[in-house]
């Protein structure tokens, strides 16, 4: 597989590199989860942000921080070391991890670790807070998107209403028989105008074309125009 996916803090280095990967990435994630269960925080967590955390993952930069790892047995640390390994071929397989002495219980430490329990509670609280913040941000973005869509639809509706309310030349005057009539869009009724019939309009046009207006002639000294 080559798809870049997974929760950032649990991704194996080959996923971040975009290289082909196999089931070994799952064993890396098992190592990260085991680390969290034993101490109460992530092995590659960096308060400066995800970019620094990715850098630590790519370099397999983690350690067993004191005092949270002081009470953890050596066998538990050995399991984590063999799971969180930079080279995928050197990580424990599923069967090898199940046969590890700490997993089988032959070398497990059964003492109650109070500090680990408190750290786990803090980890869960921080995880829930982070999820709540992401939910609020996503909800806010969806609300803003819906608001913009509503405003845009309202503008389109207003523009459509203005276009439909604008009168056209065809709706103002209509021709019935030989007489032009005016159509009133407010009431939907029609009112006849005192307009010359169409036949007479045509005769006047032909008359004007055949008989142009005579030019104005000025008689010298008379001051008259004909």
UniProtKB/TrEMBL annotation:
Question: From the UniProt record, which GO molecular function terms apply?
Answer: ATP binding; protein kinase activity
Determine the domain of life of the protein's source. Eukaryota
- Which spans does this entry mark as compositional bias, Basic and acidic residues? 146-164
Gene3D superfamilies annotated for this entry? Answer: 6.10.140.620, Transferase(Phosphotransferase) domain 1
Q: Which residue ranges does the record annotate as region Disordered?
A: 144-173
Coiled-coil region(s) at which residues? none
The Protein kinase domain covers 1-103
* Pfam family name, one: Pkinase
Which protein, by its recorded name, is this? Calcium/calmodulin-dependent protein kinase type IV-like
What's the source species for this entry? Python bivittatus (Burmese python)
């Amino acid at each position: 597989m080559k798809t870049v996916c997974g929760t950032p803090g649990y991704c194996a280095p080959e996923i971040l590199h975009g290289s082909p990967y196999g089931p070994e990435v799952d064993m890396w994630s098992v190592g990260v989860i085991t680390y969290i269960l034993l101490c109460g925080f992530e092995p590659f967590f960096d308060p400066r942000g995800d970019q620094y955390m990715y850098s630590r993952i790519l370099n397999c930069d983690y350690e067993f921080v004191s005092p949270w790892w002081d009470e953890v047995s050596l066998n538990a640390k050995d399991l984590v070391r063999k799971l969180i390994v930079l080279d995928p071929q050197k990580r424990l397989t599923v069967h090898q991890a199940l046969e590890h002495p700490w997993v089988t219980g032959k070398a497990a430490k059964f003492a109650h670790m109070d500090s680990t329990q408190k750290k786990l509670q803090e980890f869960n609280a921080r995880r829930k807070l982070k999820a709540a913040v992401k939910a609020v941000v996503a909800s806010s973005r969806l609300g803003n998107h819906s608001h913009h869509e509503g405003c845009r639809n309202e503008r389109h509706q207003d523009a459509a209403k203005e276009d439909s309310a604008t009168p056209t030349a065809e709706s103002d005057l209509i021709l019935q028989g030989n007489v032009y009539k005016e159509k009133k869009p407010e009431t939907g009724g029609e009112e006849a105008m005192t307009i010359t019939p169409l036949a007479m309009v045509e005769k006047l046009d032909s008359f004007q074309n055949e008989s142009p207006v005579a030019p104005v002639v000025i008689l010298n000294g008379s001051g008259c125009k004909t």
